[in-house]
Automatic annotation (TrEMBL):
Substrate binds at residues 187, 211-213. This is Probable S-methyl-5'-thioinosine phosphorylase. It comes from Rhodanobacter ginsengisoli. GO terms for molecular function: glycosyltransferase activity. InterPro entries: MTAP (IPR010044), Nucleoside_phosphorylase_d (IPR000845), Nucleoside_phosphorylase_sf (IPR035994), Purine_phosphorylase-2_CS (IPR018099). Pathway: Purine metabolism; purine nucleoside salvage. Catalyzes the reversible phosphorylation of S-methyl-5'-thioinosine (MTI) to hypoxanthine and 5-methylthioribose-1-phosphate. Involved in the breakdown of S-methyl-5'-thioadenosine (MTA), a major by-product of polyamine biosynthesis. Catabolism of (MTA) occurs via deamination to MTI and phosphorolysis to hypoxanthine.
């Protein structure tokens, strides 16, 4: 049996896991350097859960400086087999407005200059993972079923466009992403999903919509205060949703 039932990577607005009990902190050293912070392991809803704040517990790491390789390696080392990435996003599709919760099924990567693979170390085996379906289908279904059980509305499917950040996008960039087929935009979805696949982890994304992406809503400008207010409302639903996952 795996030591862990679930690992959760918290994004903006989720820096600790409410309801996690009997916790122990692990400072893990990985061949790729330090993770974003300690992994906090504990009991939640009958599961052994590990939680890691992607941006650090004090939100000190911008998306392009997150050590995605170390984070997933650390969770894998602790025995994680199932990982949920919680990501703040902007909504591009009209029905993906602030506070919507989406379980995307596709992604497009617009990031650059990040370490995107474990196979660039000297002598490492070169792996070409299949990434046709970037999220683990069975884990997506578990999330959707859990949301249904918990009575939380979620949108099934959508394409996540991963941008470099930390700035928000221009209206022209979002218009291009829309033409490309993106429904959501966020800064942290990649390379996390691909690294999880390289480690053979089950991985799915729970995307919390904080704002309409540039040019998609009525506002001329996107306010950070508004982003965090909407995120807080969506984030409040996450523990109840995850509690309904199968053990
Ligand atoms: N763009 C990129 N990432 C985001 C956004 C956005 O509009 N909102 C929250 N994360």
């Amino acid at each position: 049996m795996s030591a862990l039932d679930l690992a959760v990577i918290g994004g903006s607005g989720l820096y600790s896991f409410p309801g996690l009990e009997n916790t122990a902190r692990h400072t893990l050293h990985t061949p790729y350097g330090p993770a974003s912070g300690d992994v906090v392991q504990g009991d939640f809803a009958g599961m052994r859960v590990a939680f890691l704040a992607r941006h650090g517990e004090g939100h000190n790491l911008p998306p392009h400086r997150v050590n995605y390789r170390a984070n997933l390696w650390a969770l894998h080392q602790l025995g994680a087999r199932r990982v949920i990435g919680v990501n703040a996003v902007g909504g591009i599709r009209h029905d993906m407005g602030p506070q919507a919760i989406v379980v995307p099924d596709q992604l497009i990567d617009y990031t650059h200059g990040r370490y995107t693979s474990y196979c660039d170390a000297e002598g490492a085996e070169v792996k070409h993972i299949d990434f046709s379906e970037p999220y683990t289908a069975s884990l997506r279904q578990q999330l959707l079923a859990a949301a249904h059980t918990a009575g939380i509305a979620v949108i099934d499917g959508g394409c996540y466009g991963a941008t470099q950040g930390p700035r928000l996008e221009t209206r022209a960039e979002i218009a291009r992403m829309k033409r490309d087929g993106c429904d959501l935009v966020g800064m942290t979805g990649m390379p996390e999903a691909a690294l999880a696949r390289e480690l053979s982890l089950d991985y799915a994304c729970l995307a919390l919509v904080a704002n309409f992406a540039a040019g998609c809503g009525d506002e001329a400008e996107i306010s950070i205060e508004e982003i965090f207010a909407h995120l807080a409302a969506a984030t409040a639903q996450v523990p109840r949703l995850l509690a309904a996952l199968p053990k």
